[in-house]
Amino acid sequence: MEKSLKEWIDLQLRKNSAATTSSIKQKAIKIFQDIKEAFPSYENITFSASSGWFENFKRREGLHNIKFTGEAASGDHVAARDFPNELNRIIKEGEYLPCQIFNIDETCLYWKRMPKRIYVSLEEKSVSGFKPIKNKVTLTLGSNSTGDYKLKPMLINAFETPRALKGHNKNDLKVIWRSSKKSYMTKYIFREYFKNEL
């Protein structure tokens, strides 16, 4: 069983896929179940892919855990520090009421993102050829500062009509559906959202 499992881990690495603790344990249980079905004499043997078994398996097969390094975050710290004062000045000069002040933010879900750590053979010091997967959707949320008016959420996908929504009216969704090439918020999409929602 462990030989098949090690081959599967090596295959995952060649396919630029991840072999995490969870996926290795799940695959071990699946391989064991397949063996039990093929050999009825094994029916009374149990296997749970415990943490103890996993630690011993890693040692026997020479596996170690490596961490992916992501892209470095960047930001304008000076502008971020000065922004609250600038915002207060704009609010005072414009004589805006709290109900007229909105906070709109976006968050991304990278639904195909690789885990930060995977298991590889001891010979592998690093993993080359792995490109960060950027498949994502962007969700935009907002409300006014008093909290009594919430904007309808907007979801931005790379595809205008993904396969899962074929035949469905996107206007019936609980979100405003938009698309852009890399699921980014564009100036055009934001202007349209601002004009139609506020």
From TrEMBL:
Pfam families assigned: DDE_1 (PF03184), HTH_Tnp_Tc5 (PF03221)
UniProt keyword annotation of GTP-binding present: no
Under the heading Gene3D superfamilies, the entry gives: Homeodomain-like
Q: Which GO terms describe its molecular function?
A: DNA binding
User: What does the entry list under GO cellular component?
Assistant: nucleus
| Domain HTH CENPB-type stretches | 1-67
Keyword Cell cycle in annotation = no
> Which InterPro entries would you find in this protein's record?
CenT-Element_Derived (IPR050863), DDE_SF_endonuclease_dom (IPR004875), Homeodomain-like_sf (IPR009057), HTH_CenpB_DNA-bd_dom (IPR006600)
Q: Which UniProt keywords apply?
A: DNA-binding
What is the protein name for this chain?
Tigger transposable element-derived protein 1
Species annotation: Smittium culicis
Query: Which lineage ranks, top first, belong to the organism behind this chain?
Result: Eukaryota, Fungi, Fungi incertae sedis, Zoopagomycota, Kickxellomycotina
